[in-house]
């Protein structure tokens, strides 16, 4: 016998699939659903949590439960591909905005992450990715200038990796990745269209050339409703 919150979850899914609500529209409040289904608020909360886990809704602080588009964009976790290579496979209106491009001295933060000295120079690139009019990814790239001596806004708008491989003749080999969920920073709030979302998905990349030297550290900060991070795994016998 199904638990009550499972039954309410199924009922809400059926209503969503009948398009009772449109994408971006708020579902009724917990109190309204509690009265409609004649149950406790805790039971409604469990049903909504299940909807969130299955990718139907996003809980937005100060607003409620928003119906979201379930067809999220797949971003590979294990692969090492550029943003341009990913979006070329998507039929989307995507733009890159270069917010900052500057050559800086390595502070302690960059010394630790890039394993360099304080006198070393680093390219600092801040880019915002816009999908169909919404700014939903903030990419912060840091590249060691000794390995990548020249960068321009045009290169950063197109593909840094294409420039490194085709123009500089370097081979990008592998990366170590870390994925966490964090509260938005003031910079996130300023540069992204967060629309009330209370968390961002942060992917940190430490990228190496084929001679095993670290040359890039990246923080890619994603609005959580637009992306699904995918991987392929095989069990080893």
UniProtKB/TrEMBL annotation:
A Pfam match: GntR
GO biological process: one example: negative regulation of DNA-templated transcription
Superkingdom: Bacteria
Every HTH gntR-type domain range: 2-70
GO molecular function, one term: DNA binding
Key words of the record: DNA-binding, Repressor, Transcription, Transcription regulation
SUPFAM superfamilies: Chorismate lyase-like, Winged helix' DNA-binding domain
Record's keyword annotation contains Glycoprotein: no
Name of this chain's protein: Trehalose operon repressor
């Amino acid at each position: 016998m199904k638990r009550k919150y499972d039954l309410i979850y199924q009922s809400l899914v059926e209503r969503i699939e009948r398009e009772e609500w449109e994408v971006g529209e708020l579902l009724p409040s917990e109190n309204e659903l509690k009265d409609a289904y004649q149950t406790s608020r805790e039971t409604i909360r469990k049903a909504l949590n299940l909807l969130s886990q299955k990718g139907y809704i996003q809980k937005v602080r100060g607003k409620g439960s928003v119906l979201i588009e379930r067809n999220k964009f797949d971003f590979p976790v294990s692969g090492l591909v550029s943003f341009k290579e990913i979006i070329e496979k998507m039929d989307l209106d995507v733009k890159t905005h270069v917010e900052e491009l500057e050559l800086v001295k390595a502070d302690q933060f960059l010394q630790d992450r890039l394993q360099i000295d304080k006198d070393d120079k680093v390219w600092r690139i801040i880019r915002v990715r816009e999908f169909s009019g919404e700014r939903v990814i903030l990419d912060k790239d840091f590249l060691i200038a000794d390995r990548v001596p020249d960068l321009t806004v045009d290169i950063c708008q197109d593909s840094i990796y294409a420039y490194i491989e085709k123009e500089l003749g370097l081979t990008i080999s592998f990366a170590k990745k870390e994925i966490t969920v964090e509260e938005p920073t003031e910079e996130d709030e300023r540069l992204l269209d967060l629309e009330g979302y209370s968390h961002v998905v942060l992917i940190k990349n430490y990228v190496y050339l084929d001679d095993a030297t670290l040359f890039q550290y990246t923080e890619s900060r994603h609005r959580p409703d637009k992306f699904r991070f995918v991987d392929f795994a095989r069990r080893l016998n």
